[in-house]
Amino acid sequence: xxxxxxxxxxxxxxxxxxxxxxxxxxxxxxxxxxxxxxxx
Length: 40
Prior knowledge:
Blueprint (H helix, E strand, L loop, with lengths): L6 H8 L5 H19 L2
């Protein structure tokens, strides 16, 4: 999870350059999705 939330990974995953605010939003979304998967 720590690797997945780093700025470089988030931008590579998005396929575009993200602003810090966009990275924060995508990071939060990714963490929420991972938590949902773990709680199943």
